[in-house]
Amino acid sequence: MEMIYDDVNSANNKSSRCMGNQVTSSKRTKVLLIVLGVSLVLALGGLCVLGFMSMARELEELTANYTNYREKFDALHNQHEETLRKLNRLNPSTGCALCAVNWIYSGGKCYYFSTVKMNWTQSRDHCVSRGGHLVIINSQAEQDFLSSKVKVTHWIGLNDLDTEGHWVWVNNQPLNDSAEFWMKREDGVSEPDNWTEGHPAGEDCASLGHPGGDTEIWMDAFCFQEKRFVCEAAAAV
Ligand SMILES: [Ca+2]
Ligand SMILES: [Ca+2]
To answer: 104-234 sits in which CATH class?
Structure first.
């Protein structure tokens, strides 16, 4: 009887030890899960911080680049203004500028070279609104000066809008044959050719320079085309 009792006690002790082992194992699993969870949160947090730091660095670089370009732009702008001031001569007796700001003095006249493109009529009106007129070219010297200043085709103040083939300047003076610089073609039709392809009304407005780049000659062109233009005004006295 006593032997049986001892066996039961022994079995109970073994059961208690097993239960104790199971509880310890469960606790370990929980601790492990908590550690893993905290590690995951810390890792994610670390990634976020790295991401923010990277974005902050990029933003800093962009800001530095912007400041750099802004400074370069300001320097070029100042250089441009200074060049214009040098080109715009001063009256030796009064010390006043002979031309308005952004106009260039040459041979007793002031010239404005547009930076925007307009059709011929808009160009003509724009020059008037600036106190001048589309340029009237009277001499080889004036033609040479203008050619040297432009790199692309520009409208000039010459047209045959009223009578085909009768070219007049914006001051209504007819074209002087001794000072004309139409493009001459040895093996074809010279300018003005009043080209009508696609536009039966033909070409009635004159431009300095070929669209291909030669700026030493005149061509007639469709007046609705948008080109840069040259204005002329009298210099101050
Ligand atoms: Ca014409
Ligand atoms: Ca033409």
So the answer is: alpha beta
